[in-house]
Write a sequence for this structure.
């Protein structure tokens, strides 16, 4: 099994750019400068202290330049990542790159991104500087059109990096004569304060009476955006004058009366100190305890982990609401149930307070126990109607699960860590987490060598992942040890799972007799152990194996048993695999209509789960069916689409790799039927289909979209880039606007326009615009004539 994805938005052009929870204020000059640097360099790093607005600026830049990147802009938030060893996997997950292979993750990333025109926003790099530098240097070296916009408190120091220190927000000059209120409000710092003030005092506005106080507040806060936002919240309880007075008091204490300007990092620290001081003891405790979470939390987790000592469980919800009101916790209502998070600067402050409280070890243990229990609970509930909700929950909590595992192994609780990694075996099977799963299982198996039932199950889980990666001999060795432990301890469940995967290895090696014996043993033992998931998993494999071996009656019987079992538990995932297996059998029997119906049913189901392996298997069988029905063009297109599916996984068919012979036979039959040239053309057309179009074509819900015919070379002397720029000229854009839109240097845009004028024999931009319109009319007339 593999996990569904909760982040379909990552497949969009904007690659998961988060929704702005508050308005973006000002920063016109900074936006322009960052975009200019990005047009000139493939790596731009926004630097500055915490709270200065690096992340907000980077996200706004990404949103404004996304049209220049056909393969999208993708955001990778590293704030919750502490282990540099899984940086590449984390980036792959954020970029929607799945990898089932055993290759190094960074190598796979470079391969997948080699021909992509995309922008990666690498946010919060400062605590992983070396690892981020290696990753960025490798990706930019191995690709040609990839660009990186990083945020960090320090530069990455990679070749070609452009560093842009993000300044604090603009402040009005303190002159003898105060400017009018509308003029003051044009300054970014004042505008930010005013907008955030309105959110807590709806009638607030900058007037002649209060403008000087507002200006002094913003100046006292050095124009630091986070400091301004934290201060504006105080207007719930204080007037402007009271707010300014308390800021003056606090900062005078910090500087001990010195007239020297207060360092900016101390300004923000002082304001966070003040926010902390204004909290009640319980609010401070919750703030500190919430800092142990990575990537956010929900209310259930807060109640379980943060209650105790001075906080009763029933008080947690009220404390959470109060911290949201004070802008300490950020509420995210885009998901259900609602989740909460701390801004990175505030989270680090909370961790300092937790360490100073002497409660850090106890809170981190509660965090570990909560996520250890969550992993076990999700594993128990996976086979049934809640499977989708379980997978989504695990994906949302991935950063916390990782933190809990890291704590286990760092503190010597390796037995707990190993059991937790084993319980998450189905979560690891998601293509994003395959390598990370093996990392944790390998780490636990290295540390825990006692021949226990926990080690035996971990060996089976790790072997399952290894088989999918094609590491057959490695998996065989782990399963042999697992089986030996199971026999010594008399553990049916251990022996059952070992037998499932040993059967798959036997089938892969061509030993069908041993495979069937292993599957039979697995079925008996797992039924005896009361493990319906393992039983259904075995029945699916028996279906496929018996079909491949030509035992039609046994195939049908096992399929019916699997479907009945899944229906009894209202389970759909493994049921879809039973339908795929049945489809293979009907195809082998020559009933291609029934086979296609079953494969399309399985394809729809696996598409809804975003299960790439299931989608690939269904498309495989549909290509075989098409070749059998002599629909060779369709077979060729599907084979072309499959190049992308299996390429995205890094290894074709996973643990069903023994079916590859049917793929090869289909390819040979199709090539022989339509000839090499036509076959290559069909492959190329299929490979150009998007995943959505490929699935629609496989389901026969839509024909493949025909590519717009390229005009003959003599029809236009312009290159593709020159044509694109000519069209922007026709829209009335200036050279600067064209450069910004395409994220190129202005001088590059000017050079292209000079070439366009020279090639067309023109001397004005107006002539270019007229020519573009004539080209459009000519193309429309050609299309009308063709139809």
């Amino acid at each position: 099994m593999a996990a569904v994805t909760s982040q379909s938005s990552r497949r969009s052009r904007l690659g998961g750019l988060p929704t702005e929870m508050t308005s973006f204020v000002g920063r016109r000059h900074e936006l322009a400068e960052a975009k200019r640097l990005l047009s000139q360099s493939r790596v731009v790093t926004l630097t500055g202290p915490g709270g200065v607005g690096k992340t907000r600026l980077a996200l706004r830049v990404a949103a404004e330049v996304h049209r220049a990147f056909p393969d999208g802009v993708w955001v990778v938030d590293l704030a919750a990542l502490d282990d540099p060893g899984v940086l590449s996997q984390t980036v792959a997950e954020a970029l929607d790159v799945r990898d089932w292979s055993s290759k190094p993750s960074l190598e796979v990333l470079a391969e997948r991104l080699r021909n992509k025109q995309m922008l990666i926003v690498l946010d919060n790099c400062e605590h992983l500087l070396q690892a981020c530098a290696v990753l960025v240097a490798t990706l930019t070296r191995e690709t040609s059109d990839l660009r990186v916009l990083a945020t960090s408190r320090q530069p990455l120091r990679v070749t070609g990096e452009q560093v842009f220190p993000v300044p604090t927000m603009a402040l009005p000059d303190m002159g003898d004569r105060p400017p009018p209120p509308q003029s003051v409000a044009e300054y970014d710092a004042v505008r930010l304060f005013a907008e955030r003030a309105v959110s807590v005092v709806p009638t607030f506005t900058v007037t002649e009476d209060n403008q000087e106080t507002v200006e002094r507040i913003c100046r006292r806060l050095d124009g630091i955006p986070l400091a301004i936002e934290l201060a504006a919240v105080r207007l719930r309880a204080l007037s402007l004058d009271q707010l300014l007075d308390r800021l003056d008091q606090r900062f005078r204490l910090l500087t001990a009366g010195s007239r020297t300007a207060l360092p900016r990092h101390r300004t923000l620290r002082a304001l966070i100190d003040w926010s902390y001081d204004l909290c009640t003891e319980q609010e401070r405790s919750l703030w500190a305890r919430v800092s142990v979470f990575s990537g956010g939390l929900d209310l259930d987790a807060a109640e379980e982990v943060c209650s105790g000592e001075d906080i009763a469980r029933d008080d947690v919800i009220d404390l959470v609401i109060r911290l949201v009101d004070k802008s300490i916790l950020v509420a995210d209502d885009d998901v259900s149930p609602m989740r909460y998070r701390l801004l990175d600067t505030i989270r680090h402050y909370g961790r300092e307070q937790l360490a100073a409280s002497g409660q850090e070890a106890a809170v981190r243990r509660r965090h570990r126990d909560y996520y250890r229990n969550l992993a076990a609970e999700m594993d128990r509930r996976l086979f049934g109607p809640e499977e989708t909700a379980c997978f989504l929950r695990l994906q949302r909590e991935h950063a916390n699960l990782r933190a809990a595992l890291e704590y286990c192994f760092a503190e010597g609780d390796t037995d707990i860590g190993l059991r937790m990694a084993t319980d998450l075996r189905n979560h690891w099977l998601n293509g994003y987490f395959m390598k990370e799963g093996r990392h944790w299982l390998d780490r636990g198996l290295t540390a825990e060598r006692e021949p226990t039932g926990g080690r035996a199950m971990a060996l089976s889980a790790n072997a399952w992942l290894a088989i999918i990666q094609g590491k057959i001999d490695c998996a065989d060795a782990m399963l042999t040890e697992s089986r030996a432990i199971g026999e010594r301890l008399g553990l049916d469940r251990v022996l059952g799972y070992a037998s499932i995967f040993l059967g798959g290895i036997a089938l892969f090696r061509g030993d069908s007799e041993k495979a069937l014996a292993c599957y039979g043993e697995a079925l008996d033992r797992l039924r005896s152990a009361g493990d319906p998931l393992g039983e259904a998993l075995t029945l699916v494999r028996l279906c496929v194996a018996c079909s491949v071996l030509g035992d039609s009656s046994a195939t049908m019987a096992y399929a019916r048993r699997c479907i009945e079992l899944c229906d009894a538990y209202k389970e759909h995932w493994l049921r879809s695999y039973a339908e795929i297996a049945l489809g293979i059998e009907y195809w082998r029997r020559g009933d291609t209509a029934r086979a296609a119906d079953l494969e399309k049913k399985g394809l729809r189901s696996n598409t809804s789960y975003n299960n790439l392996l299931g989608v690939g298997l269904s498309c495989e069988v549909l290509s075989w069916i098409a070749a059998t029905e002599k629909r060779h063009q369709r077979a060729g297109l599907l084979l072309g689409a499959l190049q992308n599916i299996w390429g995205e996984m890094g290894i074709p068919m996973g643990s069903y790799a023994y079916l590859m012979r049917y793929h090869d036979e289909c390819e040979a039959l199709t090539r022989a039927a339509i000839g090499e040239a036509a076959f290559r053309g069909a492959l190329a057309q299929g490979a150009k289909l998007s995943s959505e179009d490929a699935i629609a074509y496989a389901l026969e819900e839509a024909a493949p979209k025909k590519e717009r015919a390229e005009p003959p070379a003599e029809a236009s002397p312009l290159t593709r880039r020159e044509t694109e720029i000519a069209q922007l000229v026709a829209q009335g854009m200036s050279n600067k606007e064209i450069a910004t839109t395409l994220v190129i240097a202005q001088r590059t845009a000017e050079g292209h326009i000079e070439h366009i004028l020279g090639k067309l024999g023109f001397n004005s931009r107006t002539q270019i615009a007229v020519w573009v319109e004539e080209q459009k009319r000519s193309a429309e007339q050609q299309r009308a004539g063709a139809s």
In short: Confidence is low (pLDDT under 50) at residues 1-13, 256-261, 707-714. Residues 181-276 form one domain.
